[in-house]
Amino acid sequence: MHTEGGRRFLPRAEAPGLRAAHLVSRAAPHIVLYTKAGCHLCDEARAHLEDLAADHDVVLEEIDIRGDLTLFERYRYRIPVIAVDGVERLEGQIAAAEVRGLLA
């Protein structure tokens, strides 16, 4: 299997007359951690996400809410907040088991 432009392709079949690789359309989940410096709960959530990423194909993104006034107002009392594919899933004190459950 190889990747190209973020897409995964299965190897080309060896059968005569078959010319194209089969596209596997499953995209890696996009996980966003909303955080800010000095947040110990954010540090713990980041560690849990890094453990998850070591075992699963995911795209991790970390956003410091202090860089955007709208995000700061939205998340300032809730961080850390974890969103998966645009849907907020976890916030506040986050356990490792909860992070593992994100992909279930």
Keywords:
single chain; 104 residues; alpha+beta; Glutaredoxin; 3-stranded antiparallel beta sheet; 7 strands; 27% helix; disordered N terminus
Structural features, described:
This protein has 104 residues and is of the alpha+beta class. The chain has one domain (27-103): 3-Layer(aba) Sandwich (Glutaredoxin), CATH 3.40.30.10. Helices cover 27% and strands 28% of the residues. It has 3 helices and 7 strands; from the N terminus they run ββββαβαββα. 14% of the residues are buried. Mean pLDDT is 83; it is low at 1-25.
Secondary structure: elements and pairs:
Elements: E1 2-4, E2 7-9, E3 23-24, E4 30-35, H1 40-55, E5 59-64, H2 69-75, E6 81-84, E7 87-91, H3 96-100
Parallel strand pairs: 4-5
Antiparallel strand pairs: 1-2, 2-3, 4-6, 6-7
